[in-house]
Specification:
The complex is a heterodimer. Chain A is mainly β. Chain A has helices at about 5-20, 45-50, 130-135, 160-165, 275-280, 380-385, 385-390; strands at about 40-45, 60, 65-70, 80-85, 90-95, 105-110, 115-120, 125-130, 135-140, 160, 175-180, 200-205, 210-215, 230-240, 245-250, 255-260, 290-295, 310-315, 320-325, 335-340, 345-350, 350-360, 365-370, 375, 395-400, 415-420, 425-430, 445-455, 455-460, 470. Chain B is globular, with a radius of gyration of 29 Å. The chains are: A mainly beta, B mainly beta.
């Protein structure tokens, strides 16, 4: 290679590489748009809730700001695209365009422009919030001052009780309940349904005065597949609302600390039905104060062979009693109920012992109970010991019914048929409004189960057609 | 202007292989440059359809064993290949014509558009073979490179792992995936022009090869003729400008030879919006010939590149954006276009070779190589924020089937607001600078609270770096006058480093390294950790995070081949034996798999072998029949062998070597006027493994999907015909018909990505007879070319493509996908059918002229235009998304690739 050629080539190489263009692939930071703030247009949550519901959905057109603390975020999965915020004047639910970005404890300023206020089934909410464009974060859970150097307001759970929650005074706020527990019949269940993530499940929480409230958990919550704690204790939650149901939303499993024994575990005031009958026999006409009855309903509201304000219950003592409520009740066959029966009157109605004038609010449904096995006996035995067997379930074998083709005349006349098992006879009574009143009476011997009653004379009431087995 | 002709003279002389057969003799010749009469050193001379070869020495002289009727093929870098029929025993003068540089003008650095669903999320480089094919002499193969390459055509439908690529005998296929990444020597066209090899089944003396072929690129300094060359190209494809400079000394009298080459390719924006290209290439090869026996060579080369990727989208997105080249990977940042998927690769290779002519019949070449470097592709990552991808299914009007107002709203935005349908970088910065966040117990230190702006959006770079040591030795010996034996051994120790780093926090102060999905699924915060050994990590730009493991792969291979040359028959046999060992070394201890993530995993060992053979029957001197067959087993590739290698070291259940066997039969005509090859072939692959991770709609979580027992059949026919119609006009007809389909019902295992829970075990995939998708099975081309005696040429070709099937989602072909439907339901068909794309055609044209200046400078100008008619509606492939809703298949519609519209490549080269 000649020197001249080498120089020529090197020069060309140099020139060509110089010509070789640059490619820009590094970028500068773009301009940051601050979120508009007008110090003259700051409102509180209480002021926001002054919006007239007739103007819903209400859209803010101007740069109004609201300062609040995030009391519940979506990290647990119990809520989605949503958060609950609270200031000194109250709480509110906010709905976000996309999930995530707000964290419990964040102190934020929301620019309300273009957001929409309404109520969803009575829950106030601010909708259409873009976390990036509407919200400025001023502090986190760890900060004591905001990024502007001002002190950060502290939000702690407010100690309340179930009844005050139901006044709507704490909607969307962070609360704490002490001495609460899950309903006895919920124990053993999960917070939600581990087999179906799409199911939101309500569990009943109660205090020791039997006030109840719903705890609602989403199937996507990270504690959805945890078993409900069975004891009693404290719970921290946010109050939500759906129509007239108040719902507590739990933020995390470790905010449910139920380590004490349950309220009803030391229930010392329980009185048995046998004890009630004994007291009446001794001449007592009122139940003692503060007593609690726990019994199973053995009458069938659907079969409707009873007054709608009456029910018959039996408990572990084997005895039964008739209840008369002040208003129509809705307890079904097999329900385990709890009655605050203190000082209620004991009366005879046409010879049948009743607890009378029971306010319906005194009775709590605990859940499904276990029906007692009906005693197999004879008509003669029942009649001879009518006060022992009254308001209890018995079964007669080989009984025949005579005196009519149907149980009653529906809508017109009650039916009084004769039931006989060879040892004696007893009136088989059916109200004309009973569900089976117009059904045909079986001929031939049957096995029949029912409630022993008294209407001056002994009576027998079946609950429904399943009580007769041919 | 005078056409410069090189004069080549043949002389009788001593042949390398002694003992002539009855008809053959030693043909002597000389290759000379017609410019100045100087000898052309290092020109490659071979006989067609034979493995005879020779090279011109310092005087341009060569000697080769030939017979009357043989066709001599003479090739040299930068010059056209000349073929001469041997018509007598006297010295032959052949003329090497200055190349119109066809080979360089249509070199396409194929776009990094992904070939299949897995590629779209993978961070691997382009591995399309078309550039390499264009240099082939076989008309079928070179047409496949030129005219079919743009349509992603694959010869015989094979994936890249079926072709072995070597550089000076050093295997350069990637160890983890088996594919060769041509971009590793991108832009170094001048330096990597010389190669030998075969397609399909055949013989290359430096390696056993694979079912698709083998190519060995020679970068040995003494084989380059002395030349200086500079070129500049203008194009409108991936890059718009290219400069290449090459200087080669040729073999000097002092025994030294040196080649240096450099290149630069760049574009601020390529054919597709939002793509940029920024690449360099450097090459150095030096050799010292100590004596006639020993020579030592050293090569060092690399091609650092950085480019923004195009994307792929659903047809709905293309239609709304108004273009089939809509690229969702870029957006405006402060008014400038920024691409989120930037690939940055630099994997230099150094080779030290010892060449030993043991005796006149035997050569032993031994090389050691070290390659290292970085590969990576960026991607957006986001946490607790809206999905930034502009073509996320919820930002498309089709999501609002029941809400016409919303559908119209989105349609209007897509059609009229360009910024809306691209990434919104400014928004990400705005979000990040306001995301005040406090990390509890940062770095695992109790009470260490760190407060700052936590990035909601960031750019991460997924890296695949590596270190690789290679040793090869190979022996070629003519043990008898008509028998050549070759063989060798190689050892490759490969360490692939897979991890990701924080590339750009986009205005935020830090990124908090937790697993978002585990965080959602487990209430124990420990389970959301990425690395129990480094809990609660806060990471900054440059830090590794997310996953970090090493793929250790050691391969030892040995092979032996022998070729026999008889009067009527040539045949060969070959066998190889190899041992592959691989294992995973995890650098992070995953809380969900604490015993199977950190440290070395169990070693997987595979012993594999291969057998091949072939024969050529010479019906006459111009007609040949060739048959080849091969049977081989192959160890599974690392990336298919682990259920979820980023997180744990569990192996795909039932992992086994795959078996490959096949054969082909060809009828070949070689005459001065007509060259033609007609081939039928059939290959079966058995027991392949397929392993992917994706979001599963039914299980509502990320899953690992592994399929074993996948069998495939590739069969078809190839026809290549090239004819010299007149002395100036030539034409070609090329057609390839293929039928590539799945031939088994593989078993699939689906596990939840976050824990060991097996969601489906041994579920059957009814894959049998579905076509292998993502590419065209049938392609044909016809063309004409006019060579003017006044040193210019022009040509056109018409190309037809058909039988293009969409790459299917195996999960849609299971009982579970259709168990709620009956065959009469419309949805049944929607779920099961495999879409076939419309057939299509394109026209390409090329032209060129050359000048000679001052008797020593050659100037060449070449222009090629592809898709002259600007057909922008030609979909060349696509894939079904892995996420699907069986009640509404269009919810996650298939994604398609389109052939570029009219594109050109203009090259101006100066050569001394």
């Amino acid at each position: 290679m000649k020197l001249k050629q080498i120089i020529l080539i090197s020069f060309s190489a140099f020139m060509l590489f110089l010509m070789a263009g640059c490619v820009k692939s590094e970028f500068d930071m773009p301009e940051i748009t601050p979120i508009p703030y007008d110090p003259n247009k700051v409102i509180t949550i209480a002021e926001l809730k002054q919006i007239d519901p007739l103007t819903f959905p209400y859209k803010y057109d101007d740069d109004y700001s609201l300062f609040a603390t995030v009391v519940m975020d979506d990290k647990s999965g119990n809520i989605y695209k949503s958060a609950f915020i609270q200031d000194a004047t109250g709480g509110i639910n906010i709905r976000l365009f996309s999930a995530g970005g707000l964290y419990q404890g964040d102190y934020i300023r929301i620019n309300l422009k273009n957001t929409v206020v309404s109520q969803y089934q009575k829950l106030w909410q601010i909708d259409s919030i873009d976390v990036d464009k509407n919200i400025e974060k001023l502090a986190t859970w760890a900060c004591t001052t905001t990024i502007y150097g001002e002190p950060k307001p502290i939000v702690e759970p407010t100690l309340v009780n179930i009844n005050t929650i139901k006044t709507d005074a704490f909607q969307s706020q962070l609360i704490r309940l002490d001495n609460v527990q899950f309903f006895e019949t919920e124990i053993g269940n999960y917070f939600a349904n581990p087999n179906n993530q799409f199911e939101n499940v309500n569990r009943i929480l109660m205090d020791c005065d039997w006030n109840t409230i719903i705890v609602r958990t989403s199937g996507f919550a990270n504690f959805a597949d945890k078993i409900l704690p069975s004891g009693r204790g404290s719970l921290i939650a946010v109050v939500s609302r759906y129509r007239d149901d108040y719902q507590l939303l739990i933020r995390s499993f470790n905010e449910v600390t139920f380590n004490e024994p349950r309220c009803d575990d030391d229930e010392t005031n329980i009185i048995t039905i046998q004890e009630i009958k004994d007291l009446f026999a001794e001449g007592e006409v009122n139940l003692p104060p503060n007593v609690i009855i726990r019994a199973v309903v053995v009458s069938d509201r659907e079969g409707d062979n009873m007054s709608s304000r009456n029910a018959v219950i039996m408990d572990g003592s084997g005895a039964g009693i008739t209840l008369r409520f002040t208003a129509t009740h809705n307890f079904n066959l097999g329900d385990l109920i709890r009655i605050s029966a203190g000082t209620l009157p004991l009366e005879l109605y046409a010879g049948l012992l009743q607890i009378n004038n029971i306010p319906n609010g005194n009775v709590n449904l605990i859940g499904p109970g276990t029906l007692p096995q009906p005693v197999e006996t004879t008509v003669a035995e029942v009649i001879a010991n009518i006060n022992v067997y009254e308001s209890t379930l018995v079964t007669f074998a080989n009984a025949t019914i005579t005196g009519g083709t149907t149980f009653a005349t529906p809508g017109t006349t009650h039916g009084s048929l004769t039931l006989s098992d060879g040892t004696g006879t007893i009136t088989l009574f059916t109200y004309n409004w009973a569900e089976f009143a117009g059904s045909t009476v079986p001929s031939g011997p049957v096995t029949i189960t029912g409630i022993v009653s008294i209407n001056n004379t002994p009576q027998f009431l079946i609950r429904n057609l399943n009580d007769i087995v041919e | 202007m005078n056409r410069i002709y090189l004069i080549l003279m043949f002389f009788l002389g001593i042949s390398l292989i002694s003992n002539a057969q009855t008809e053959s003799f030693q043909l002597r010749g000389k290759v000379v440059s017609s410019v100045d009469g100087k000898p052309v050193v290092g020109a490659n001379i071979s006989l067609q359809n034979s493995t005879e070869s020779a090279q011109s020495d310092n005087d341009g002289v060569f000697i080769i064993e030939a017979k009357i009727g043989d066709i001599l093929v003479i090739e040299q870098t930068g010059m056209t290949t000349v073929e001469i029929v041997v018509e007598g025993i006297g010295d032959i003068v052949a003329e090497l014509v200055t190349a119109p540089a066809i080979l360089e003008q249509t070199v396409i650095d194929v776009p990094t558009v992904a070939l299949s669903a897995d590629d779209i999320d993978s961070d691997t480089q382009s591995h399309d073979i078309s550039r390499l094919l264009q240099g082939s002499r076989d008309i079928y193969v070179s047409t496949a490179g030129f005219d079919f390459g743009q349509a992603r055509y694959r010869i015989r439908g094979y994936d890249g792992e079926n072709t072995s690529i070597l550089m000076n005998g050093i295997p350069v296929n990637d160890m983890e995936t088996g594919r060769a990444f041509y971009s590793n020597w991108g832009g170094l066209n001048d330096a990597t022009r010389m190669s030998e090899g075969y397609n399909g089944i055949g013989v290359l003396r430096s390696t056993f090869g694979s079912i698709g072929g083998a190519t060995d690129i020679s970068v040995r300094a003494s084989e380059y003729g002395a030349t200086s060359r500079a070129s500049y190209s203008l194009a409108n494809r991936n890059y718009r400008n290219r400069v290449m400079l090459t200087y080669a000394t040729g073999l000097l009298d002092n025994g030294w030879a040196l080649v240096v080459s450099g290149s630069r390719r760049w574009a601020q924006e390529g054919y597709v919006d939002g793509t940029f290209y920024d690449a360099w290439g450097y090459f150095l090869s030096a050799e010292k010939k100590f004596n006639s026996e020993h020579s030592l060579g050293f090569v060092f080369m690399g091609a650092p590149s950085k480019s923004g990727a195009p994307g792929v989208a659903t047809q709905e997105a293309y239609d709304l954006a108004g273009t089939n080249y809509y690229n969702p990977n870029w957006g405006f940042q402060d008014g400038e276009k920024r691409n989120a998927r930037v690939g940055q690769y630099h994997q230099p290779l150094s080779i030290l070779s010892h060449y030993w002519n043991v005796n006149e019949k035997t050569k032993l070449t031994t090389s050691v190589a070290y390659s290292f470097g970085r590969g990576g592709r960026t991607a957006l990552n986001w946490y607790d924020s809206a999905d930034p991808r502009p073509d996320y299914y919820r930002y498309l009007p089709s999501y609002y089937k029941n809400n016409q107002a919303m559908a119209d709203y989105y349609t209007n935005l897509w059609q009229n607001d360009e910024a809306f349908r691209q990434l919104k970088w400014d928004d990400y910065y705005n979000a990040n600078v306001k995301n005040l966040f406090s990390v509890r117990d940062a770095f695992g230190i109790e009470g260490n609270t760190v407060t700052g702006n936590r990035s909601k959006y960031m750019v991460e770079e997924r890296r695949i770096d590596h270190d690789r040591y290679t040793f090869t030795t190979n022996l070629e010996s003519a043990i008898k006058e008509n028998i050549i034996v070759s063989g060798g051994a190689s050892a490759i120790i490969h360490r692939g480093y897979q991890f990701k780093v924080v590339s750009d926090l986009l205005g935020g102060d830090f990124w908090y390294d937790v697993d978002q999905f585990a965080e959602r699924d487990f209430d124990d915060p420990n389970m959301a950790q990425v690395d129990l050994n480094n809990p609660n990590r806060i990471v900054y730009e440059g830090d590794r995070f997310g996953y970090d493991y090493v793929a250790n792969i050691n391969t030892y291979d040995s092979y032996v081949q022998s070729e026999f040359f008889l009067s009527k028959f040539d045949f060969y046999f070959g066998a190889n034996l190899s041992q592959t060992t691989f294992w995973r070394t995890g650098k992070m201890k995953n809380p969900r798999f604490p015993d199977n993530s950190y440290g070395d995993s169990e070693k997987q060992n595979f012993t594999n072998y291969g057998l091949k053979g072939g024969a050529t029957y010479k019906v006459t001197g111009r007609h040949y029949i060739t048959a080849n067959a091969a049977y081989m087993t192959r160890a599974p590739y690392f990336w298919n062998s682990y259920v979820a290698p980023r997180v744990r070291d569990h192996i795909v259940p039932g992992l086994a070597s795959e078996t490959i066997y096949g054969g082909d039969l060809s009828y070949i005509i070689r005459s001065p006027k007509v060259k033609s090859r007609l081939t039928v072939f059939m290959t079966e692959f058995k027991d392949q493994t397929w392993s992917r991770s994706f979001y599963h709609e039914e299980y509502r979580t990320f899953v690992n999907y592994t399929m074993t027992g996948v069998d495939k059949v590739h069969m078809g026919a190839e026809l290549g015909l090239e004819a010299n119609i007149t002395s100036t006009v030539s034409g070609h007809i090329v057609a390839g018909i293929g039928d590539y389909y799945y031939n088994s019902r593989p078993m699939v295992n689906i596990t939840r990505d976050n824990d060991l829970e097996v969601l489906a075990d041994e579920r059957m995939v009814y894959l049998q007879n579905y076509k292998i998708g993502g590419m065209t099975h049938t392609a044909a081309s016809a063309g004409l070319r006019y060579n003017s005696p006044k040193y210019w040429f022009i040509g056109v070709s018409g190309n037809y493509f058909d039988d293009i099937y969409i790459d299917i989602n195996p999960d849609r072909r299971t009982y579970e996908a259709i168990e709620d439907f009956v065959i009469e339901d419309e949805v049944w068909k929607d779920v099961l059918e495999q879409e076939k794309l419309k057939s299509n055609y394109t026209f390409n044209a090329f032209a060129g002229k050359s000048w000679r200046v001052k008797r020593k400078y050659f100037i060449n100008l070449n222009i090629s235009v592809n898709n002259i008619l600007n057909n922008t509606g030609f979909s060349i492939g696509g894939f079904e998304q892995l996420r699907f809703d069986n009640r509404d298949i269009d919810r996650f519609a298939s994604k398609y690739f389109y052939l570029y519209g009219r594109s050109y490549f203009i090259n101006l080269a100066v050569r001394i």
